[in-house]
Amino acid sequence: MRLRARAAHTSHIGALGMDVAFERDEEIRTELSCKFTRRKLIREYAAAGLELLEWYTDEEGRFALSLAGIA
């Protein structure tokens, strides 16, 4: 899923103390849906300098949402 800026603007992310500028029609990806096992995702994160912080899943373990942070 993506969001597209209707007009040029700057958004402030208070928790990070960061301002992010967007041009008109610029897109940002807000969701990425992929098929990974937890083990493979840990390896992918490590290769990118990240670590798995949280792993949320349904009762049957069919779907998961992960939260990663800087290692």
Description of the structure:
It is a single chain. The protein is mainly beta and 71 residues long. The chain has two domains: 1-32, no CATH class; 33-71, no CATH class. Helix content is 14%, strand content 44%. It has one helix and six strands; from the N terminus they run ββββαββ. The strands form three sheets. A two-stranded antiparallel ribbon has the order 1-4. It has a two-stranded antiparallel ribbon with strand order 2-3. Strands 5-6 form a two-stranded antiparallel sheet. It is elongated. The relative contact order is 0.17. The model has no long low-confidence stretch (mean pLDDT 93).
What is the H-and-E element order? Answer: EEEEHEE
Shape: elongated
* Overall pLDDT metric: 93
Spatial sequence of strands, sheet with the most strands: 1-4
Distance between the termini: 26 Å
Helix segment count?
Answer: 1
Poorly predicted parts: none
Beta-strand percentage range: 35-45%
Biggest sheet: strands, sense, closure? Answer: 2 strands, antiparallel
Backbone CA Rg: 16 Å
Question: Helices and strands: which structural class?
Answer: mainly beta
Put the structure in a nutshell.
The protein is mainly β and 71 residues long. It is 14% helix and 44% strand.
Provide tags for this entry.
71 residues, two-stranded antiparallel ribbon, 6 strands
Strand and helix map with partners:
Blueprint: E1 2-4, E2 9-13, E3 18-22, E4 27-29, H1 38-47, E5 50-57, E6 64-70
Antiparallel strand pairs: 1-4, 2-3, 5-6
